UniProtKB/TrEMBL annotation:
This is Carbohydrate ABC transporter membrane protein 2, CUT1 family. It is found in: Cell membrane. It comes from Microlunatus soli. The keyword Nucleus does not apply. GO terms for cellular component: plasma membrane. Belongs to the binding-protein-dependent transport system permease family. The lineage of its organism: Bacteria, Bacillati, Actinomycetota, Actinomycetes, Propionibacteriales. Residues 90-280 form the ABC transmembrane type-1 domain. Keywords: Cell membrane, Membrane, Transmembrane, Transmembrane helix, Transport. InterPro entries: MetI-like, MetI-like_sf. GO terms for biological process: transmembrane transport. It is a multi-pass membrane protein.
Length: 294
């Protein structure tokens, strides 16, 4: 082999080695950024859970980053004891969330299908006018809603908590309408030929095809209502209809120095949301993938 060929082979290997080194460095940089982001996102939750397992004395005398030693569940036992009775806020929150989820999702599905498939006068005008309400900050409607429900004698009741968001959501109707429009019209036509009416087409054809987006909206609705604070704080007083967020806020103001108790309440509020996400994570991923493909 000539000297020129040997030199050329060495040069090619050097270039390949340089490219491989740059590729490795690029991969390491990407993983470093992802790990840093994961620490920023997961770190506060781990710190909250660790603080909930500390005694007030350990929290006051050690760094916040120090692991709990020994582990203690006294903060959780105090929350569920007679002193605070956190079972009632959890029960109220579950009731409010379930009722709003079922009714709101049902009304949103019916409205979205009507806007997507049915033909009636003013359909698009009504849809876009309703969608424009998303531009109005929810804070601006609190005072009128408070006055209406107080005049109706519903203040500090269960219905006062659920009525403002019970009959549909502009965001949910918009997402469902766009998804329903992607359902192949031939499937619906075939179902109608077989004798299905509008509601049976929706139930047997459209909804099974739309499971990913419905699962996503289920998670969004549950998280939104579970974390709702401002409206329950305004419309309710006392402990009878206090939701979990309001009860936690009251606990924080009453025991401002006892952060271990507050973190225990925060951990209790967080765990159901993590469980729901673990159950529906595949459907959420599918809906994001399908939406991105379209």
């Amino acid at each position: 082999m000539s000297t020129e060929a040997v030199s050329g082979a060495r040069a090619r290997r050097a270039r390949l080695g340089g490219r491989g080194g740059r590729r490795v460095l690029s991969t390491l940089a990407i993983y470093a950024v992802l790990i840093f982001g994961a620490v920023l996102i997961v770190g506060p939750f781990l710190l909250s859970f660790g603080t909930a397992l500390k005694s007030p004395r350990q929290f006051a005398t050690s760094s916040a980053l120090t692991p709990p030693a020994p582990l203690t569940a006294q903060n959780f036992s105090r929350l569920f004891g007679a002193e605070h009775n956190f079972i009632s806020p959890i029960a109220v929150t579950v009731q409010v969330t379930v009722v709003i989820l079922v009714v709101q999702l049902g009304c949103s599905i019916l409205a979205a299908y009507a806007f997507a498939r049915l033909r009636f006068w003013g359909r698009d005008v009504i849809f876009w006018a309703y969608l424009a309400t998303m531009m109005i900050p929810s804070v601006t409607t609190i005072v009128p809603l408070y006055g209406m429900l107080t005049a109706a004698g519903l203040r500090n009741t269960f219905w006062a908590l659920v009525l403002p968001t019970l009959f549909g959501s502009p965001y949910a109707i918009f997402l469902l309408r766009e998804y329903f429009r992607s359902v192949p019209a031939d499937l619906e036509a075939a179902a109608r030929i077989d004798g299905c009416g509008t509601l049976r087409v929706l139930w047997y054809v459209v909804l099974p095809y739309s499971r990913p987006i419905i699962a996503t909206l289920t998670v969004i609705t549950v998280v939104t209502q579970w974390n709702n604070f401002l409206w329950p704080r305004v419309i309710t007083t006392g402990n009878d209809w206090a939701v979990l967020t309001v009860a936690t806020a009251a606990l924080q103001s009453q025991y401002n120095g006892n952060w271990t108790l507050v973190m225990a309440a925060t951990t209790i509020a967080l765990l159901p949301l993590l469980l729901i996400y673990l159950i529906f994570q595949r459907q959420i991923t599918n809906s994001i993938a399908i939406g991105g493909f379209k």
